Amino acid sequence: MSRVAMLIDESICMGCRGCQVACKQWNDLPGEATTQQGSYENPPDLSASTWTRVKFTELVQGDNLQWLFLTQGCLHCGNAACVEVCPTGALKQHPTLGIVTLERDLCNGCGYCTQFCPFGIPRLDGDVLSGEGLAYKCNFCQDRVTNGLLPACVQTCPSGAFKFGDRAEMLAQGKTRVEQLKQGGFPNANLYGEHEMGGLGRLYVLKEAPSAYGLPENPQYPVMANLWQNAVQPLGTVAFGAAALAVMGFYFVARRNIKMEEVEW
Amino acid sequence: MVGNRVRRVEEAGEAGVIRVRWIPKYTAMERVFHWGHTVTFLALAITGMILFFPFLRPLAQGEGGHLIRLLHRASAIAYGALPLVYLILEPRRALMSLKSVFKVSRYDVDWVKGMIPYYMFARHEAMAPQDRFNTGEKLNAVVIILGSVVFAVTGLIMWFGKGFLPIGVFQTMVLLHDIAMIVTVCMFIVHFYLAVLHPLMWAGLVSMRFGVTSAAYAQEHHALWYYGPDKAKEIYEAQKAEHAAKAEQSSG
User: Do B214 and A260 touch (CB under 8 A)?
Assistant: First the structure.
């Protein structure tokens, strides 16, 4: 099987939040007590128990109001910084499907994934003082996908905004849809995720520029993660090895040249 | 070995007995502080490296990983509190030591020059007179003090700033924390070698354990401290002149 992707057509999404409910059901996540914020958007943010969520944006353009929906969740980067920085190996990428999963039994709650994700997706549920905690994020229902089922959110979507399958196929469908939208009165329509971060596993068909939805226009693999993994870590290994070897060398030279009988006590 | 030594003493009589005159070097508080800092430093280094090195990954996973991270934080509190407590208990001595550690003189340059000839080839005349802390000890102290400041600042930001500060800040802190770790652990390796393994520095470990050092050792290793600046300089110059004369004789 080749790399899979989820294609979410935000021009079709009607903001029913069925995906949120299905996600909670399949992953056995509790609901959250929230308060009225003056929007249909609820809960207010992704959290340890909300792995996918429809974000509501009211875009005012002159006299025209557009209600933009964005189904937030892990974007399953081709080049995933969280997997690289995870010190436990709890975060991993499926070798063929490309799904980025989090094995909670291995997680130690360090929260590096939450600090290196360019989209701010993983959430840490933990105690600040002791650092006890675990990270949570969408895993594309890898358990369902590897058993021939669709992810829960895709399965449940009544509007048909979700598609899931071979990534190349999803890209082709997304591009066709963008062309349709452009001709149908959405000149800013675009497909998000073809090349970003090594190609995303969650592709969005957007009516407006990504920034209008609160998505980063040009997400970058964090420079610090690169420096850390490819420079500082090898440097540390080499430095300790060199220091230990040098010290051993010095010891043998010193032992040969120093006569303790001549040393005054 | 003990049997051997006893027989040699019997044969040699009084001349076979090593007589050491001990002089005080470190207070009890200084030693407790030093060893407390050693233990917490090692605890921090070990628990920290478990998150740093990929080959130690199995120890960082799951419940064990939670425990490692908790131990790292607990040790960090002790590591940070120790110097502050010491500063309160012995403020004048602490300031005196701090001053001498950050003081740089011509003898420090000479120490660096004479480091290899002295420590590797036992050329005694190459060693410039040293204060209560020699240049190497001062360098170790400076690196550990500055490193600890970096550890404390970056560590506290990572501990309490996660989620509140921009992720770029957190990422920079991770990197700085790691760089400080590499520098200080390398320094520790060298310090361990000179203090514990190096044969000429035998009295270093003794004085950090019992608080005293031998007068003969202090004369050779800490002349500036033992004799005072004027006499130390005199002896150093004479030593160098004598060596130069000898070298000339042997070559001529």
Answer: no
Residues A180 and A120 in one domain: yes
* Residue A232 to residue B175, Cβ atoms within 8 A: yes
B13 touches A: beta carbon within 8 Å: no
Q: Which amino acid is at B161?
A: G
Q: Got the DSSP string for A158-170?
A: SSS-EEEEEHHHH
The answer to whether position B216 is within a domain reads yes
What is the model's pLDDT at position A144?
A: 96
If chain A, 265 residues long, is cut into consecutive pieces of 10 residues, what is the mean pLDDT of each piece?
93 95 96 90 94 94 91 96 94 96 95 95 93 95 96 96 96 97 94 95 96 94 89 91 91 83 71
CA angle B54, B60, B61 (to 5 degrees): 110
Residues 6+ apart with CB under 8 A from A23: A29, A50, A51, A52, A73, A138, A152, A153
Q: Do B122 and A232 touch (CB under 8 A)?
A: no
Q: Which residues have CB under 8 Å from A65's CB, separation 6+?
A: A58, A59
Please say whether the beta carbons of B91 and A135 come within 8 A: no
Q: How many CB atoms lie within 10 A of CB B109?
A: 12
**Which token pair is B250?**
């042997």
Residue A246, phi then psi, degrees to nearest 5: -60, -45
What is the number of CB-based contacts under 8 A between chain A and chain B? 145
User: CATH number for the domain including B147?
Assistant: 1.20.950.20
B51 vs A contacts (CB less than 8 Å): 87, 110
Same domain, A3 and A133: yes
Query: B73-98 as b/e, with b when 16 or more CB fall inside 10 Å?
Result: bebbeebeebbeebeeebeeebeebe
Q: Cα separations (Å) of B146 from A117, B39, B132, B142?
A: 31, 19, 20, 6
User: ipTM, 2 decimals?
Assistant: 0.90
B1, pLDDT greater than 50: no
Residues of chain B in contact with residue A48, where contact means CB-CB under 8 angstroms, are none
Residues 227-256 of A with CB under 8 A from B: 227-228, 232-233, 235-237, 239-240, 243-244, 247, 250-251, 253-255
**What is the pTM (predicted TM-score) of this model?**
0.90
A108 and B178 in contact by Cβ < 8 A? no
Let me know if residue B226 belongs to a domain: no
* CB-CB neighbours of B178 under 10 Å: 22
Domain end residue (candidates: A217, A237, A253): A217
Count up the domains in chain A and report the number. 2
The answer to whether the Cβ–Cβ distance between A90 and B214 falls below 8 Å is no
Q: The domain containing residue A234 runs over which residues? A: 223-262
CA–CA min distance B225, chain A (Å):
17
The answer to whether residues A233 and A126 belong to one domain is: no
